[in-house]
Amino acid sequence: MERLTPVEQHAPGKWQIGTVSEIKQETPRVKSFVIELPMWMPHLPGQHYDVRLTAPDGYRTQRSYSIASSPLDEGRIELTIDRLEDGEVSPYFHDVVIERDQVELRGPFTSYFVWRGEAPVLLVGGGSGVVPLMAMLRHRRRIMPELEMRLVYSVRSAEDVIYADELGEDAVLTFTREPPADWSGHVGRIDSALLAEASIDPAIAFVCGSNGFVEKAADLLLESGVDPHLIRTERFGPTGP
Ligand SMILES: Cc1cc2nc3c(=O)[nH]c(=O)nc-3n(C[C@H](O)[C@H](O)[C@H](O)COP(=O)(O)OP(=O)(O)OC[C@H]3O[C@@H](n4cnc5c(N)ncnc54)[C@H](O)[C@@H]3O)c2cc1C
């Protein structure tokens, strides 16, 4: 098997202070943050960092965010954060953090949800679950663009498509609520017909999104005959698209 990068997973580094160098509005409720790290370590696509916020009274809270960028982007990582209306950490990033701000973070964390160069690869993402899958797509495009990798991506409506300008023929989309006016592709929740559209017989499949989305997608993959050992899942939260 071809190896992507000579990266072995280690215990995550210490907490460090990163500097936000760029903020991109991806969709009305999703922003990407490029963060420069003084103690950057190469990661494998799929890994995540923890971000920690500390209030003036000492109260602390932390959340996990997947790395969206390729490990070829040395010295920095990109995190893509969905703003949850009643959330604690995600609204802080959206409403308070500006370029040149400093944020505390630790990673990359070891995980079984990592892509090491296996192919063909099927990526199945719901909502912000596309983030770690994008790290895989971006990395593959830069180092072995001919490698077979296909993304199946479920979103609510056209305005919710994260990384819209980077999705090409290797992505199959479904719109669960409001498809674009001229849309002739799949609509509604993920089903076997949508997975069949990806027309790939995966050597490995990565599924990421809300609990419900991951359950459904993993069940469909099993029903279609994919070996359970080849399915890797990552769950972001209780609800989803
Ligand atoms: C390994 C890992 C990687 C992750 N990567 C990303 C990422 O790349 N981008 C990203 O946006 N998020 C990601 N998440 C989710 C993230 O860690 C937080 O859970 C999320 O940002 C909510 O935090 P919050 O403080 O804003 O909301 P909280 O204050 O924790 O929760 C507010 C409310 O929203 C509900 N809730 C919590 N999480 C979700 C969710 N994901 N979807 C819907 N409802 C939710 C809670 O039950 C609660 O009712 C990841 C989670 C894990 C475990």
Question: In terms of topology, how is this protein built?
Answer:
Blueprint: E1 16-27, E2 30-36, E3 48-54, E4 60-66, E5 76-82, H1 89-95, E6 102-106, E7 121-126, H2 130-143, E8 149-157, E9 171-178, E10 186-187, H3 192-197, E11 204-209, H4 211-223, E12 231-235
Parallel strand pairs: 7-8, 7-11, 8-9, 9-10, 11-12
Antiparallel strand pairs: 1-2, 1-6, 2-5, 3-4, 3-6
The protein binds flavin-adenine dinucleotide.
Task: Explain how this protein is built.
The protein is of the alpha/beta class and 241 residues long. It is built from 4 helices and 12 strands; from the N terminus they run βββββαββαβββαβαβ. It has helices at 89-95, 130-143, 192-197, 211-223, and strands at residues 16-27, 30-36, 48-54, 60-66, 76-82, 102-106, 121-126, 149-157, 171-178, 186-187, 204-209, 231-235. The strands form 2 sheets. Strands 4-3-6-1-2-5 form a 6-stranded antiparallel sheet, covered by helices on one side. The protein has a 6-stranded parallel sheet with strand order 10-9-8-7-11-12, with helices on both faces. Residues 48, 63-66, 80-82, 84, 86-90, 128, 131, 210, 234, 236-239 line the site of flavin-adenine dinucleotide.
Which tags fit this structure?
single chain, alpha/beta, 6-stranded antiparallel sheet, 6-stranded parallel sheet, 34% strand, binds flavin-adenine dinucleotide
